[in-house]
Amino acid sequence: MNEESDMTGTPIVLANGEGDRRWFLGGGTHTWKLRATDTDGAMFAFEDALTLGKMTPLHTHPDTDETIFVLEGDILANIDGVEHAVSAGGMTYTPRGVPHAFTVRSATARLLSLQTPGTADAFYWEASEPAISDGPGPVDFDRVGQVAQSTRATQILGPPPFPMNQPAIAQ
Hints:
Layout: E1 20-24, E2 29-34, E3 44-51, E4 58-60, E5 65-72, E6 74-79, E7 82-87, E8 91-94, E9 100-104, E10 108-116, H1 121-126, E11 128-130, H2 141-151, E12 155-158
Antiparallel strand pairs: 1-2, 1-11, 2-3, 3-10, 4-12, 5-8, 5-10, 6-7, 6-9
């Protein structure tokens, strides 16, 4: 690299399992790989470990685009009213403002969530707690809703658009 380059950030390398582990109060355990402060606000990324039946409400992110890579397992994503089965190796991209939700259809799933720019970082961080053990953490949908309102990073539009007893995908 020459002296005229315009490098603004610090390179970050994390091994498998490294990063701040937090219980998201909507369900799942996040392992943070990048915070918005690490990327000068450009993006943030976390790995999400989930179990069968985890559903998000129908929601939108008014100021961020969301990309989800399915690392393990199977999800059913509803993006702008259209359902998509997505398995390991697949991904979804949801532009800002587009209503979406997902549910886990396998016993477990691991997702890598990336949002650009990083303006919604505060929502996920404030709607979670440090994970103090392995396994599921507390769930507090009221707090998630309050943080969504206070940060304005997520707008909850309604309940999950999926049947509550959706069949699992055979592994």
